[in-house]
Amino acid sequence: MSDRSERAEPAERVEDHLPLTPAVFHVLLALADRDRHGYAIMQEVEETTEGRVAMGPGTLYGTIKRLLRAGLIEETDERPDPALDDRRRRYYRLTGFGRRVAAAEAERLQEAVADARAKKLLPLGPGTRSPEGGTP
User: Fold this and answer.
1) Bridge partners of 75?
2) 3-class SS at 74?
3) Do the beta carbons of residue 108 and residue 101 sit within 8 Å?
4) Sign, CA torsion 7/8/11/15
5) Fewer Cβ atoms within 10 Å of its own Cβ: the N or the C terminal residue of the chain?
6) Are 60 and 42 in contact (CB under 8 A)?
7) What is the separation of C-alpha 121 from the centre of its chain, rounded to a whole number of angstroms?
8) What is each CA distance from 105 to 21, 61, 65, 82, 101, in whole angstroms?
């Protein structure tokens, strides 16, 4: 099977990919600020979620494979520091389309949190106003 037949062109509409699964969102989030190899993605997810999300290799690499096919991430040959790196590692980066999908999901989640606050399921955050117009 050729590389071209394995990779689908990205869907034209960001909405076609929403909502994202937690695993997909956390992988995209881990790649939002820099290219990373698989193990570094796992470490970043665990660190940024303070251990609430632990991704095993099967979940991670299955997710990476789907993201590559969907055109949300791409493999890169560039290395942060080739002298200190293991050549067997594969590095991944967010594509422009992947960034748009991740941003749309972040906005969707932000709206859900606002709805939860309005329904008093979550406390109001600092600097926010209560639905009645006063401060918390």
Assistant:
1) 92
2) strand
3) no
4) negative
5) N
6) yes
7) 25
8) 10, 21, 20, 34, 6
Q: How far apart are CA 120 and CA 130, in angstroms?
A: 9
In Å, how far are 1, 124, 130 from 134, measured between CA atoms?
61, 11, 6
φ, ψ at 128 (rounded to 5°): -100, 160
Tokens of 124: 């109001």
Q: Which domains are seen in the chain, by residue range?
A: 11-118 (1.10.10.10)
The dihedral of CA 61, 62, 63, 69: what is its sign?
Answer: positive
Instruction: Read off the pLDDT of residues 33-58 as tens digits, 9 standing for 90 and up.
Output: 999 999 999 999 999 999 999 899 99
Which DSSP category does 33 fall into? S
CB 104 within 8 A of CB 24: no
Q: Which two tokens stand for residue 108?
A: 């969707």
User: Which tens digits make up the pLDDT trace of 84-123?
Assistant: 667 778 999 999 999 999 999 999 999 999 999 999 999 9
DSSP 6: H
